[in-house]
Amino acid sequence: TWEGQYMTDELLGISEAARRLRVHSFTLRRWDISGQLPAMRDSAGRRLYTATQIDECARRRGMKTTSEASR
Q1: Which whole number is the average pLDDT over 29-45?
Q2: Would you tell me how many other CB atoms lie within 10 Å of the CB of residue 53?
Q3: CA quadruple 39, 57, 19, 25: dihedral positive or negative?
Q4: What pTM did the predictor assign?
């Protein structure tokens, strides 16, 4: 299962992931649908992202995440 794969990485809900990327949650939904930033789903169907996935997305787009900006 994907839960086992990502147990060492922080899992973020869509709101927290959007906040870190400084984009709207609708943007993340579009990126998921288009395959630009695929989300995992929990048993309730909620989108989940790893912190590493969000950081990599930010780097690819030349952005800083809120966690990186505070360093």
Answers
A1: 97
A2: 19
A3: negative
A4: 0.79
